[in-house]
What does this fold into?
Amino acid sequence: MEIYPAVDILDGRCVQLVQGKREQATVYGDPAAWAQKWLDEGADALHVINLDGAFGTATRNADLIRELIRETEVTVELGGGIRSVEDAAGWLAIGVARVILGTLAVRSPGAVRTIADEFGSDRVMAGVDARGGQVVIEGWEEAAGDYLTWAKTFETLGAGSLLFTNVDVEGLQQGIALEPVKRLIEATDLPVVASGGVSSAADVRALRDAGVSGAVLGSALYAGKITLPDALEAAHAP
It folds into this structure.
């Protein structure tokens, strides 16, 4: 199971939000410095989100993210503000391992197939951000339907993996909600990366045992509730 430290970028700074709310941002500083810290501690992949893009300003932070990708030279999955096939293609062309399609995948499902056909399914991750079992888009402001139904649709369209973010527990540092993850894994054959609430090595082990392919560490990692070495050990232990 892979561990993805999150590097969420807002106004050029590394931040962590609570429940996706911009006004509840904790600022941590230089994104590149944090990315390097996680790599030094053993990460071999990063989960990078352009929060300004998610909130509607797709071009903001673009130069910073390009530089981060060039400097780290590790697997980077990128989301936030990818609103067109051209946006996705541009990021994939400069070395992003896979793009996370959230609002675009829901608004224009055919874009998933188009990008998968051109670049390969393994480079397309469909975002299943759910609150109360409903997919939420547009910065988690708008409900768009049952999360399991959307997951199956994304699989049919050619996505190579799913990012499941449980908005109900995201950023609260109070642990995961395992049942929605299990239901998703049962509903699809795609690899699932889980995000939201991962706050302890026990959470990582529970996700590993449930069958997820990866877990994103965010608020609890930055707050020191869980360390990256402990998470890696839990993910890879027999």
Q: What stands out?
A: The radius of gyration is 16 Å. The CA atoms of residues 77 and 130 lie 19 Å apart.
